Queue: 3 jobs
Job 1
Amino acid sequence: MTYDEDEQDGLRARSEQAIGELAQALIDNPTLHNAISAAFGAREKAIEAQQAAMSALNLSSATDLERLERRLRSFSQRLEDVEEQIDQLARDIGAIRRQAAKDGADTVKD
């Protein structure tokens, strides 16, 4: 290992240690903890206020629209399944009619 590489490794280790100590100091800081907690609390209250305002104006939220989109996709899939079943029934009825017509024609011949 060269002297420069040794120097870089030492600098890297000291930097990592300093960053770790800084992070720990921030985590342990009650003022920062309180500020973050207050920010998250304010965010929740803002979301609740937004939802209440949208509800009062009879507007849908993005969550409501996403839920509606999922329900429409589900309904569309079920409708496609029903259409496929109707198509299959139509084919089955057609086959039964052809068979009945054939059987009727065979009976007339006899």
Job 2
Amino acid sequence: MNPDIAKTTDLIGQHAKIIETLRTEIAKILVGQEKLMDRMLIALITGGHILLEGVPGLAKTTAVKTLAQALGLQFQRISFTPDLLPADVVGTMIYNPKDGTFSPKKGPVFTNLLLADEINRAPAKVQSALLESMQERQVTIGNNTYPLPEPFMVMATQNPIEQEGTYPLPEAQIDRFMLKCVIVHPSKDDERRIMNRFTRKSDIKIDAVMSMDQVMSMRNVLDQVYCDEKVGDYILDIVFASRKPSNYKIPIDHQIEYGASPRATLFLNLAARANAMLHGRAYATPQDVKEIAFDVLRHRIILTYEAEAEEVTSEDIITRILNEIPVP
């Protein structure tokens, strides 16, 4: 084994116990959502943002709040509504009549973990208020720019079945989310556990089991996780096949309006390495890429009207690409 990989494996092993403790703490509230838990940890380690999509009642909001409590991080929640203003998100300048000056009043975006609840219920001008904070990790209020605290992560939720009074996220906004996770209904056994646990009065206390320093330490370890050139080529092939599938002998050009952006390449690399890290490995494999591909790509592949008429989904496109691209 390469000495660097052996050293990184030891560092990952040192964090494994902390991660397992964090999982156990979150599982006090979150039942049977292991995949969602993994995705939240991947976003935390990589510094990415998550868009959670699912019908009401699937614990999307609860998952974010529980993660914040278990991490001991500052948490803010914004309920997006049609009457919300950008100033309600990022803040504004307040006039002081005593001395005739303006001073900044920082908004709820100045936090570690921001829950943008029902993000598609607010108009585009409010959604776009998050653009600078998500990409640049800073906010401009008046003539001054203020850095956001580290770590900073946005977790937004949206309901896919209700369309009245909603504003679809523009592509520029949705592309800034590293992962889009689709939350499905729990299994019968999991729902039985939910019923037994939450239909009686109980005071389940979530303890802070991970510090901010430990989060930043995990991010430093991620930089040392190895991604072989062949795995990198595999990532590039997947992304380029989403743009021009006919170049890879996949005859679905007519179903794709726009393929994945360069952010998809970056996020596939980061997420695959973070996934390897969660499995105790210091190197990413093609399997790591395949495991994370749907969550990274599903919101970045824009379908044609023809594909929608044929009821083809972005998941169908991703499945076809993953089946056709040779695995190194």
Job 3
Amino acid sequence: MKITLHAVAEKLIAYLYHRISLAEIVNWAESAMMDGEFEDYRFKILRDSVK
């Protein structure tokens, strides 16, 4: 799964607007850290945001 700035922003917005639960965003972040492929040019920012 490709992790983009847009994907991270969508997940955070969904959580803030109560469209997904804390458990769902935590599960997504864990999956992203283990299996995700971060965009190269924003790798550090995306990794730190998801972490």
